UniProtKB/TrEMBL annotation:
Full protein name: Glycosyl transferase, family 25
All copies of domain Glycosyl transferase family, residue ranges: 2-110
A Pfam family recorded for this sequence: Glyco_transf_25
UniProt-recorded Gene Ontology molecular function terms: transferase activity
Keywords annotated in UniProt: Transferase
Native organism taxonomy: Bacteria, Pseudomonadati, Pseudomonadota, Alphaproteobacteria, Rhodobacterales
Domain of life: Bacteria
InterPro entries, per the entry: Glyco_trans_25
């Protein structure tokens, strides 16, 4: 099986204990990646990695420090895969839970030689999503390309080549890391999804707070922001439709 990396902030020891239980129960070894606490980053480091000007123009909303730290944490995990000897790796955030199929799915992906994906998401909130060019990965488990890439990077597989390409793109960045992966015409990655997903949401409580909580408390309000969000969503849908048409999708 490819190496497994779990992003974990040093203060979130309870989450790491849960990860040990979840992965240990299925015989999955992992390496901890020290998460970056965005709230502790100095302003000059934030300015170096986060393009606030581009965000104001093309982002959905301003990033909070927790989101900046989250992006840097994933970059650290990508670097380990890109510099490793394996053909790929698995990355998890430390707030996941898993079905009994997780180890089997991971083993199957590690051995998969079809070559029709660069990243495979192991989680989606919408398990009824339709897949293009789907095929059987295991009995009762499908892998395919979703028309719209699901949000969230709580658990995913990544090839070595794809990891190197992601590392070469950033920093700087101006979107959250999970949002960036939805812009597949920019990353150039073929993002697949496994159904049913072997990863589910775990306990979202954390000693350091959560990205979602920080995002909600800092969210801009008012009509101008509402209009910005609407235009952002419309622009994304149009760009996605153009990209999928070029790939031969009917939708």
């Amino acid at each position: 099986m490819w190496p497994v990396y779990v992003i974990n902030l040093a203060d979130n020891t309870a989450r790491l204990d849960v990860v040990n239980e979840i992965l240990g129960a299925q015989g999955i070894l992992f390496e901890r990646v020290d998460g970056v606490n965005g709230w502790a980053l100095p302003e000059d480091e934030i300015a170096r990695v986060y393009d606030a000007s581009r965000n104001a123009k093309d982002g959905r909303y301003p990033l909070v420090p927790a989101e900046i730290g989250c992006y840097l944490s994933h970059i650290s995990a990508w670097q380990r895969i890109a510099e490793g000897i394996a053909a790929g790796g698995f990355i998890f955030e430390d707030d996941f839970a898993a079905t009994s199929q997780l180890a089997n799915v991971m083993a199957a992906l590690s051995a998969d030689t079809v070559g029709d994906w660069d990243m495979v998401k192991l989680f989606t909130l919408d398990d009824q999503v339709s897949l293009g060019a789907s095929r059987a990965l295991l009995d009762g488990v499908l892998i395919g390309i979703p028309y719209r890439v699901p949000t969230c990077l709580i658990g995913y597989a990544l090839t070595k080549d794809a990891a190197a390409r992601l590392v070469a793109r950033v920093p700087p960045f101006f979107r959250p890391v999970d949002e960036d992966q939805k812009f597949i015409w920019e990353t150039g990655l073929r993002v697949a999804l496994v159904l049913p997903p072997p990863v589910v949401l775990g306990d979202q409580q954390a000693a350091t707070g959560t990205v979602g909580g920080a995002r909600r408390s800092a969210r801009r309000s008012g009509f101008r922001q509402f209009l910005h969000q609407i235009l952002y969503a419309l622009d994304y849908r149009r760009a996605l439709a153009r990209h999928r048409r070029r790939e031969g999708w009917d939708a």
